[in-house]
Design goal:
The protein starts with 6 loop residues before the first strand and ends in a 13-residue tail after the last helix. By secondary structure, the protein is α/β, with parallel strands linked by helices. The longest helix has 20 residues. Helix 1 runs parallel beside helix 3, helix 3 crosses helix 10 and helix 11 packs parallel to helix 13.
């Protein structure tokens, strides 16, 4: 069994046909760091290699399912990173290679031979929504929220699952606004299999997983392959290629640099508050000028005095 740092993996004690993967960075609302995507893949592989397991449940420890990429790990400071390059010119293929690996790690849930269920409480937002939407089924607390707020600036969902799960009109509604929806709405829209009061979430997931677990592994595998083939034929892989490349562009275009400089100078809580408020986001030449101005301010500001970060990318 692999050793994990960002999650827990075990068979369910009451029903060993159910494998449970629990994202386990509760102090950071299970925000995604460099290790988590690969560990999700390895946990899925472990479940697929275990003949006792028929179904996989993915949940989050603490107050949320997953609050997105950890901006303290990926975004703070002026350190070069493949996904946020400070040097010029930007190398889009280096960015793509890194983000595509993360995307494929999340997609291990989709490609798993065994059905996967996302058990969503609190928030499954930004990159956390990518993880949830890579699962075959979603069961949500009715007061939980799911969405991709970086659609407003500094992000494009690399799994591209919104269109495939919601259809074009509602996917555009989510991407054009960066809004989140609660579990009740997600069920009404067909995004969630079910939405239940938070106190009933564990029991609802256990009942669904137990029902699936009684089906032979081969039957489950064949049905999943057939349904997945429909989305493959619709161009899922090609769409993810474009989405991952576009995600890199959003982080390095003028408005993306404005967002990052504002976050570095004033803290991510401030930058995210602007992004999510509905205020017009500076773009093109205006964004470029503001980013350059903040760059000069950052150069004059002692590193210890720079604002700290929040999550939700």
């Amino acid at each position: 069994m692999p050793r994990f740092h960002t999650l827990k993996y075990a068979r369910d004690r009451a029903n060993p046909r159910i494998a449970r993967i629990t994202l386990n960075r509760p102090e950071r609302l299970n925000a995604i760091d460099e290790r988590m995507p690969g560990e999700i893949r390895r946990a899925v592989e472990a479940a697929n290699a275990d003949d006792a397991v028929h179904v996989i449940v993915l949940a989050g420890a603490g107050r949320a399912f997953c609050a997105g990429y950890d901006l303290q790990a990926f975004g703070e400071g002026m350190v070069d990173h493949p996904c946020q390059q400070e040097s010029s010119p930007w190398d889009p293929m280096l960015d793509y290679r890194t983000m595509k690996r993360f995307t494929e790690d999340f997609m291990s849930l989709w490609h798993s031979y065994k059905p996967t269920i996302a058990q969503v409480h609190g928030h499954a937002v930004a990159g956390g929504s990518d993880i949830a939407l890579c699962c075959d089924l979603l069961v949500m607390a009715d007061d939980a929220h799911i969405g991709y707020m970086p659609a407003r600036v500094w992000g494009c969902p690399t799994t591209a699952m919104w269109a495939f799960r919601l259809g074009p009109m509602r996917a555009k509604r989510m991407m054009f606004t960066g809004d989140t929806i609660d579990g009740t709405t997600a069920k009404e829209w067909g995004l969630a299999t079910d939405a239940v009061p938070p106190a009933q979430l564990e029991a609802a997931v256990r009942e669904l997983a137990g029902r699936i677990a009684g089906v032979p592994r081969g039957q489950l595998m064949m049905h999943k392959l057939v349904v997945n083939q429909v989305l493959d034929a619709m161009g899922l892989e090609q769409t993810q290629m474009f989405a991952t490349l576009f995600d890199g562009i959003t982080r390095h275009d003028p408005q993306g640099l404005w967002f990052r400089r504002r976050a570095q100078l004033h803290g991510y809580k401030d930058a995210v508050a602007w992004r999510d408020s509905g205020r017009p986001i500076p773009e093109a030449a205006e964004a470029q000028a503001l980013a350059a101005q903040m760059q000069r301010e950052l150069a004059r500001k002692p590193r210890a005095g720079r604002a700290g970060g929040a999550r939700k990318r």
